[in-house]
Amino acid sequence: MNINKTDAAKDPLGAMLLEYMHGNIGVSITVEAENFEMTTMTGATMFREYSEMEQLEQHALALCKGKILDVGAGSGCHSLFLQQQGKDVHALDISPGCVQVLNERKIQHVIHQNLFSLKTCQYNTVLMLMNGIGICGTVDGLHFFFQFIPTLLAEGGQILVDSTDPFVLDGISREDYHPSEIYPGETDFIMKYKKISSEQFSWLYVDFDTLQSFAEFYGFQCERIIAGSDGEYLAKIHSHSH
Ligand code: SAH
């Protein structure tokens, strides 16, 4: 598991968000998957306001309580809303450009670190949105995640995380998939903005049942809070005592 921060010269997302914030509102990055499929992520999407968010995100924000860690805060859209609600939120991001954006947007607590290099802390809510569990990279990465995450949680703390079922996303039938094959939700991406390219990084889309069985194996409860029609869902993971 990589625990380094992003190099500023390889930070297309941060560069794009900084330009957007400084008035260049038409900007977007391209995201290339290993199968050469290309998508774009616009500055406007990353800077979405509460009223423009998916119901799943709005629901997650309503469930946030206590001391909150916004993992991979990006432009800070969720942190800013929570802060405006008077909640105690810490925005964490690995990208120097994102961290500059978070500071300029006056998020009070900004942490420039890789999630997996955080030292013991006591959060009541760990918030991971926009296919947030993707940060685990692979199904195997879920083992590391569930062993690591208790060091960040206060007693009774919860993780609110979303993902998308790759079987629905890619239209792969479950019967055609054998557990010995590479899990269909494991993807490698490269992001590009103007001349800036990121390193290749792994991102995971995981179906709810797989996530739940990992969570339970590590002694957590995992509930599906909302499910959308394209395979997306919000899950709440918490310890058994609460
Ligand atoms: N949550 C935001 C941004 C999602 S994009 C939103 O919903 O709009 C994912 C973000 O996670 C990016 O800003 C990226 O820099 C950050 N990120 C990726 N890997 C990370 C890691 N290991 N630790 C901390 N942040 C990470």
**Strand runs, count:** 12
List SSEs in N-to-C order: HEEHHEHEHEEHEHEEEHEE
Spans of at least 5 consecutive residues whose pLDDT stays below 50 are none
What is the CATH superfamily? Vaccinia Virus protein VP39
For the report, how would you describe the main beta sheet? 7 strands, mixed
- Distance between the first and last residues' Cα: 30 Å
Strand content: 25-35%
Instruction: Give every kind of bound small molecule, once each.
Output: S-adenosyl-L-homocysteine
- Overall mean pLDDT stands at 95
Helix content: 25-40%
According to CATH, what is the class?
Answer: Alpha Beta
Give the name of the CATH architecture: 3-Layer(aba) Sandwich
Structural class determined from secondary elements = alpha/beta
Outline? globular
